[in-house]
Amino acid sequence: MTDRPSSRELLSAVERFLDEDLVPDLKGRRQFLARVAANALRLVAREMATESPSSTKRDPELLRQQIRQGEYAGSEERQHLLRILREDVRAKLLVSNPRLLEADEARGRASPEGAADRA
User: Fold this and answer.
1) Are 13 and 50 in contact (CB under 8 A)?
2) In b/e form, how buried is each residue of 67-87, taking b as 16+ CB within 10 angstroms?
3) pLDDT tens across 40-94, in order?
4) Full domain range(s) for residue 84
5) How far is CA 114 from the centre of its chain?
6) Structural domain contains residue 2
7) 41, 79: one domain
8) Distance between alpha carbon 62 and the CA centroid of its chain, in Å?
9) What is d(CA 80, CA 68) in angstroms, rounded to the nearest whole number?
10) For residue 57, which of 20, 29, 90, 109 sits 20 to 30 Å off, Cα-Cα?
11) Count H helices, E strands: the chain?
12) CB–CB of 81/44 below 8 Å?
């Protein structure tokens, strides 16, 4: 792959084209679809920014099996499970809707520390 433009720069260029050049000239459904496309590019860019080769993702099926088998039945285990689930939801929100996460954290609702105090 070439050094420039990078994948992120390409995504950003297409996003700007959609937002600045295309969307203002469109109407109705076509304008809506262009906005959806621009939002999809932003989501992909955020996802690329949060991925790292060394990151380990939890296997949701394994987690479901562990829950069904009662591995999180005790109080301490349940607190650990809640931390795991909060981390997973937070990671997903950072990609899918970071503004929602920022708003909740500003109110002290979504931060792992604040949520742990209420659990």
Assistant:
1) no
2) eeeeebeeeeeeeebeeeebe
3) 999 998 888 877 544 457 788 898 899 999 989 888 999 999 998 888 888 888 8
4) 60-118
5) 20
6) no
7) no
8) 21
9) 15
10) 109
11) 6, 0
12) no
Question: Encoding tokens for residue 96?
Answer: 């899918």
Residue with tokens 């679809």: 33
Q: Are residues 68 and 110 in the same domain?
A: yes
CA distances from 60 to 24, 63, 64, 69, 118 (A): 42, 5, 6, 14, 25
User: Are 40 and 66 found together in one domain?
Assistant: no
Q: Which DSSP helix (H) or strand (E) runs through 76? A: helix 75-96
* Tokens (6 digits) for 61: 């099926």
Does the predicted TM-score (pTM) go above 0.70?
Answer: no
For residue 62, give every residue at least 6 positions away whose Cβ sits within 8 Å of its Cβ, in sequence order, or none.
Answer: none
Q: Are 12 and 45 in contact (CB under 8 A)?
A: yes
- Shared domain for 37 and 11, answered yes or no, is yes
